[in-house]
Amino acid sequence: MLKLSLVAWLIFSLAWRTTPTACRQTNAPQSVQEMLAEQLQSYMDTKARPCENFYQYACGNWQIQQQEQHSLRDRDWTRDRQRYQGQLLPTDTLGLIDHSVNRRLELLLRRKNESSSESDSSILEQMRLYYRSCKRLKPYNLKKYLQLLPPSNSTQWPSVGRGWRPEQFDWITTLGRLRLHGLNGVLLREEVLPRWDDSRNYSIYVNKPSRQETQPTGEGAMIELLLDIGQTKRTANALARQVDDFERKLHRLQELEDDEGPREMQLGYLDSYLPQLRWLSFMRQVRIDSELDLRSTLIIENIPYLRALSDLVESESPDTVCSYIMLKWLAFLKQQGPADISRGECVAALRRAMPLASSWLVGQQFSDPESESYVRSLFQRLKVRFGQILAENRMRLSPPLVHILQQKLHAVRLQMGFFQPDEMEDVEQYHVRVDLSGHSFYGNQLVLLRQRVEANHDLLYINVTNLANSTGSNLSYLSESWEASNSSPLYVRPRNLVLVPHGLLQLPIWHRNISALQQHAVMGFVLAHELAHGFDMSGMDYDALGNIMGPVEEIGASRQFRQGLQCLQQQMATGSKWIDEKLADFVALRLAYETFFGVRDKREPRDPLMPQFSQRQLFFISFAQFFCGRTPVLSPRSQSEAHLKHAADELRVMQTLANFEEFSREFGCDKKAKMQASQRCRIW
């Protein structure tokens, strides 16, 4: 009888839960557009004046909303709020996207292998081995790398153990050994890139490091690294002062002019032309398993710097030079590894260590053919409008120059995801030589770093005929430099390609059911920004074939172009420090806006979900909210850097809108308002 009563009660309970009654009404699920309308308004600080600080107006409550959402969503964060507040919460929109991607990959890596094909299983198993080895770390110990990889077979690192033999240290051999394991831009830069005159082929480029790469690290950062590997405070302080002095001398070499210009020469000839560099010793480390072809060529730039570098290094003590290289190596490894031993950080480290496999897996998880079709259509509309802008010829270029630009625009393509379906075999071949362990994170890291460098140098022997017959974009050369740990889109100049990672196709940036206005204001701006990089100061160097034979000098001779460029340069004191980025922002906002609204002043009906705003006001609010972010609570030094980045995003929004006349008109800003530029800049 009791069993029958329980059964009857269960049936009654289920019936009551699934049947609407007058006492209990069911609520219809919220649509994507309703959810986004609610989110857009929750981020805004309507007490701020849009003509004085539009970023505060659009994003003033973003940080509060994110903290509330994550405190409900993340149990680890709520359990120990003070400890994780500055680490786990994403600091901007792309951070939210990556947080979502990492969580999904984490679930997949923790699950048993359910792949349908043997090749998928093999790649996924390698990724799981790396992830498990990372999770077993306690804690992340940089000194392990120094023990696994000494500067040469004849000596250990200085101040680490008792095996340091300064007479056996050779700086160029050590650089080559570390270059094989991913280090670059220390003392010099060596990389494999598409050739300037034939982008289908590759060549080695040798150059000085960038100015940023030789910027003095600072004694504080060096002391922190030295303490991490077990040095005493006294030793760390003394060594940091010594290395800092060398680093400042090195940075001053950046001022040397390259009066010889780029030169292409055979490997054997370089050894006699610049004997003090001893380049063959470097290459024998990088191509340690291959015999060097002395007739092969490379392209070398900034030869005066390389001569002065050799003199500087020879004048310094081996202890100083080796310690400098060691500290740069440790800083690089710290950046590559996990920031802390957590599931999310281990996934982020995995995406950095295995960029090709991670890109493939993200594509498997996030690929959505219907959404991709919408995005391609949007990209095509942006190209059409940009073609019309080029035809308007504001810069009064000659017809042949306009034709060249139109040809290049026609050549620019959109690619969704790092790999195309027909390139899956390349991913398999890339990982066939990788042998990872679930118990040796440091060994795994060195194996994967070396694999990336070796694979890039193998491109020097690529068969151009096979490449021409492939439908893929051959982006594997980016595997060493492109950070697959984020979902940011990019423009690939030698390929005339806008690359949109699959992970970007999710909220809050994209959903197939969001309004057309939001599609243009956010994804439209993102696509237009990357498209504009094909026509910025660097992009115009490249022609329709991706060769560095573009008409940048001819266009630079235009008076209208020079005036627009001078206007941009005058605004460089604040905001973005890169003129190409500022130019791309200004072009992209106009392009996305005019693609959606057209060029005629026609009023649109208001959105019933947000009737207090006009359609054009909503466009600008949605655009600005793509840049919403917060300053993380970290160490004083990190906090300062994060604050500067945050401020750059704020100024980026404000300067871009202040240079667009339609914004001021829509919000009724007077001429003295902060959101009105004294002189509006426009190039295209």
Automatic annotation (TrEMBL):
Coiled-coil regions, chain positions: 229-259
GO molecular function, one term: metal ion binding
Main location: membrane
Protein topology in the membrane: Single-pass type II membrane protein
Biological process, per Gene Ontology: protein processing
GO cellular component, one term: plasma membrane
Pfam families for the chain: Peptidase_M13, Peptidase_M13_N
Residues making up the signal peptide according to the UniProt record: 1-23
Superkingdom in the source lineage: Eukaryota
Keywords from the UniProt entry: Coiled coil, Hydrolase, Metal-binding, Metalloprotease, Protease, Signal, Zinc
Localization: Cell membrane
Domain spans labelled Peptidase M13 N-terminal: 50-418
Requisite cofactors: Zn(2+)
Record flagged with keyword Zinc: yes
Peptidase M13 C-terminal domain ranges (all copies): 491-683
Family classification: Belongs to the peptidase M13 family.
Protein name: Membrane metallo-endopeptidase-like 1
Taxonomic placement: Eukaryota, Metazoa, Ecdysozoa, Arthropoda, Hexapoda
Gene: LOC117140959
